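1st attempt posting a full record on here, be nice pls
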Amino acid sequence: AIDNIIPSGESRMMRHSMVEHRTLSKNVTTAILEKCRQSGVTFSNVLTAAVAFTSSDFVSGSTTVDGDLMTKSKKSRTYKVLQSLDLRRFGIQSDPCETIGCHAGSHDLLLGPIPEFSGSYFRSSMGSKHRKASERFWNLAKHSRDQTK
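the predicted structure (as tokens):
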């Protein structure tokens, strides 16, 4: 049935969503916050960059990764990350939290272009001499910051 095929040719039945929960230790959280302060970005900016980098590992459809991922991959994509926003402070009157209401919104961040498998490359470079991967990640976090000013 032609109705079950999306433009890329992938079956709708093959598509799925997933959620992965992780907890960061106090030491890791403290280290990330310190690096955020040094780089002039927020923790949310880092999370959006991490989501975009991680997505680059899955969107291509490949399941195997070998070698220098940033130079072997020829494809790059721009990722749209939906960021939720707390709008309580932007109302006509500040919200003293005495009523029930939803003061939320969202903002689309466009991050990229990001080469395929950049997330795997970044994770494999952590703690090593691959400064380029680290710079690319923190530049992406700054790009996220610049879209939320």
